[in-house]
Amino acid sequence: MNPPMASTSAVETTAAHIPARPSGIARELAAIHVLWQRDILRFFRQRSRVAGALIQPILFWLVLGTGLSGTFRMQGAEGVGYMEYFYPGVVLMVVLFTSIFTTMSLIEDRHAGFLQAVLVGPASRTSLVLGKTLGGTSIAMIQAVLFLCLAPLAGFSLASISWPMLIAHLVLGSAGLTALGFAIAWWLDSVQGYHAVMSVLLLPLWVLSGAMFPPPEGTIMATLMKLNPMSYAAAGVRRALYGGTLPSGASVGGASAALELAVVAGMFVVTVALSARACRRPS
């Protein structure tokens, strides 16, 4: 009887040293973390990109804001200058440009073979969407925080800003735009084509969001702005910078703070679902 007992003991000892296979949730979280970390490291290793994250919006805000400040008048809020009005729109532009540049790397990863390696891994494709979305959102928040340091120059007090409302709109807005960029990049195989599509799609949405000029009441433009989900993101960012209250004439069809946040959250859910659905198809 001794030999069988020794054999059984050896088997038990070997089994004890076999590492446990990670659970499905652990694999998904690990994949999301790796993709998020990769985008963050790529961002900080490109020093020119870090500098451009702050310099580009500053120049855009100063040049365009100074040029239009002499002709800007907002009915019901005559004391608001254009530099002050345009500032929240540039904050949203920072988030928009980040979504474009972050998701563009999906095409580069496909050409380099990294995307194919991820797709044959044990994690689901939804993890790929969430990892890239989380990476783009984190980079957008870094860039937004850098630009928000200039808020006092635009007339906003850092102490009076509604930070929970501002963070909620920026996180949900950047995540929604990044997920939308992911879905578009998944279907395209050219960086040039991606830039063309994003310029035709997202930039007009930003212009029609009230970022550059207030919604003109009773016009077709006002209707388009009301149907544009980015209008509610721009209004939410502006409301947060003013401490929770929008200046007269700056709201989107009289929308409330709750409606603005609900629309931005809805945009996030829809675009993530769209990306997850697109990701099930061959890249």
Quick recap:
With 283 residues, this protein is an all-alpha fold.
Beta strands, count? 0
Strand count, sense and barrel status of the largest sheet are:
none
Rg from alpha-carbon coordinates = 23 Å
Order of helices and strands: HHHHHHHHHHH
Structural class by secondary-structure content: mainly alpha
Fraction of residues in H or I helices? over 70%
Count of distinct structural domains: 1
**Which consecutive residue ranges, at least 5 long each, have pLDDT under 50?**
10-20
What does this structure look like?
By secondary structure, the chain is an all-alpha fold. It has one domain. 74% of the residues lie in helices and 0% in strands. The protein contains 11 helices and no strands. The termini are far apart.
Key phrases:
283 residues; mainly alpha; 11 helices; 74% helix
Chain-wise SSE layout:
Blueprint: H1 2-16, H2 24-45, H3 47-68, H4 82-112, H5 114-119, H6 125-148, H7 163-187, H8 191-211, H9 220-227, H10 229-241, H11 257-279
Helix pairs in contact: 2-6, 3-4, 4-6, 4-7, 4-8, 4-10, 6-7, 6-11, 7-10, 7-11, 8-10, 10-11
